[in-house]
Amino acid sequence: MQPLVIVTPLQDSHVQATIICCKKLNLELKVRSNGHDYEGISYVSDVAFVMLDLFLMNSIKVDVEEGSAWVQAGATLGELYYAIANESEDYGFSAGRCPTVGVGGHISGGGFGVMTRKFGLAADNILDAHLVDVNGEILNKTSMGDDLFWAIRGGGGGNFGVILSWKIKLVPVPKNVAVFTLKRDLEHGATSLVHKWQQIAHKLPEDLYIRVLLDRASEGGDAEKNRTIIATFKSLFLGEVEQLLDIMKQSFPELDLKSEECEKLSWIQSVIYFAGFDPYGPREVLLVRTLDTTQTRRRFFKSKSDYVKEPLTETELEDIWKMYDDPRVKDPHMLWVPGGGVMSAIPPSETPYPHRRNIYTIEYMAYWDERGSEVENENINWVRRLYGYMEPYVSKEPREAYINFRDLDLGESKDGNATYEQAKAWGIKYFMGNFDRLVKVKTEVDPENFFRNEQNIPVQPHFEEHA
């Protein structure tokens, strides 16, 4: 069902009025910061609802002297990075690589990116926040209290109130950074390289980030017969090219990285590079708000997530490659993102995001162009089959998942009023041992469950923490 009304507030009082009005009229409220919710639950529902779209609340005030910035929830990551770089070349921010993602929802779910191994999540770098609670009151870090401030930094958007703005801690970046992108197919050692990557990527110096994208390509001739897996290694190093080459020679000589395959960029150029654009072009490309600025047409996708604690063997990797050999699925992907660095030093209970002790994260994705077609069903089913196939190789009890890669396959409540036991189906996977504390906070600050969605934190009257 589409929204009855779309409210596009220009100031804080408009958000307050919308919450109070929806409560009086008993209308469900959905909050959107920029529309990147993977399952669309911020802008569709099975019941009548009002959508609060914050995209016009996107002001950013950078304080270079303090090393901080206030950013409204409707701003995009691209707008934030652009604003920081325009004020100083000495600072950046540790958050996601996609410039069109809204700041409000991204930070609410944790927010990892290419500098997470060095500086932690976006949510780990929050100094203050302004939030409108269920009573229409504006709270800051002091007035909301420690528990609620803890909960909003990774406990998922739309659970505890409406984030108006975040005060973020800027992170120092060097004048020059180094990047590279290398592609290797199966015929050129992709399997052994991915196997080695699993063993060392999370152990590399925290200044070095190397991710792997695993997709399928055809090598000439008959495209249906000559399929191969392409492993794309993409890296950011917070330092000079020469330092990067020394580290790679010692830790990952099998990749055979050469100086001419590296580029020296500024930090803001590296942001543009990881967003899929020409790093030497105008930085204003970060201000474009289209759904996916790296693609020339609108596409649909299904995504799921996993966390890995032990490397897979080469034989196990080869078995996974066979899952790609499905001609009905045109654009299958797995993205493997390294853990380690400072993430391993942060306690899992420091924020609601608990996935601190894994060697890498997996995002499964498949894309298609026609909505509601048989192709759509084939792609969704492929992602689910691959996810099922990977079960022996990923985290267990629980099988962890990332809230910002929201996945309704894990369970859902159509009316948003799931019980504690029902919500555990997704809550334990997203938040692990932090789930009970989130339930306690939710029960205290929103006892009538006004802020709800298909996978919200539940209210538990007379709550006692479960063993």
From TrEMBL:
The record, for SUPFAM superfamilies, names:
FAD-binding/transporter-associated domain-like
Q: Which cofactor does it need?
A: FAD
Q: Which InterPro entries match?
A: BBE, FAD-bd_PCMH, FAD-bd_PCMH-like_sf, FAD-bd_PCMH_sub1, FAD-bd_PCMH_sub2, Oxid_FAD_bind_N
Gene Ontology MF term list: FAD binding; oxidoreductase activity
Please provide the record's keywords in A-Z order.
Answer: FAD, Flavoprotein, Glycoprotein, Signal
Q: Give every FAD-binding PCMH-type domain span.
A: 1-173
Name of the protein described by the UniProt record: FAD-binding PCMH-type domain-containing protein
Species name for this entry? Stephania japonica
